[in-house]
Amino acid sequence: MPDTTTSTPTVASLSRRILALFIDWALASAISAGFFQFDAMATLGIFALMTWLMLSTLSATIGHVLAGLAVRTLAGGFAGPLRALIRTVGLCLVIPAVVWGPDGRGLHDVWAGTVIRRIR
């Protein structure tokens, strides 16, 4: 029987997190293609703004919702604007997102004090 008394949060599977990321990037790419003829920096800016706004207000991006995920604080609460900003900047820098700690959280989540959890 697993120990449920530890404070280590349950991290969503890597496959679900990658699926959510691809969905969000595809949406940002579609918007960029429609307004900026698919400019790479415009796509990154749209992705960052979309991610920050959605995490600040709903604690989940469109990709997270479709994959059944949500970004939460380690205590289980909503991320909020500051944590969402820290996490989004780290995610957009790429390297922090591909460096994981022993608990399975990316460095961007460690910096923000967040975790991606499966909600359904």
Helical percentage: 55-70%
Strand order of the largest sheet: 1-2
Class inferred from helices and paired strands: mainly alpha
Low-confidence stretches: 1-6
Number of domains: 1
Globally, the shape reads globular
| Content of β-strand | 5-15%
Overall number of strands: 2
Order of helices and strands: HHHEHHHE
How is the biggest beta sheet arranged?
Answer: 2 strands, antiparallel
So how many helices?
Answer: 6
First-residue to last-residue Cα separation: 22 Å
Which radius of gyration do the C-alpha atoms yield? 14 Å
Protein name: RDD family protein
Keywords: Membrane, Transmembrane, Transmembrane helix
Organism: Georgenia yuyongxinii
Structure description:
It comes from Georgenia yuyongxinii. Keywords: Membrane, Transmembrane, Transmembrane helix. This is RDD family protein. The chain crosses the membrane at residues 18-38, 44-72, 84-101. The chain is mostly helical and 120 residues long. The chain has one domain (14-118). 59% of the residues lie in helices and 8% in strands. It is built from 6 helices and 2 strands. A two-stranded antiparallel ribbon has the order 1-2. The longest helix has 23 residues, at 14-36. It is globular. The model is unreliable at 1-6 (pLDDT under 50).
Summarize the structure.
With 120 residues, the chain is mainly α.
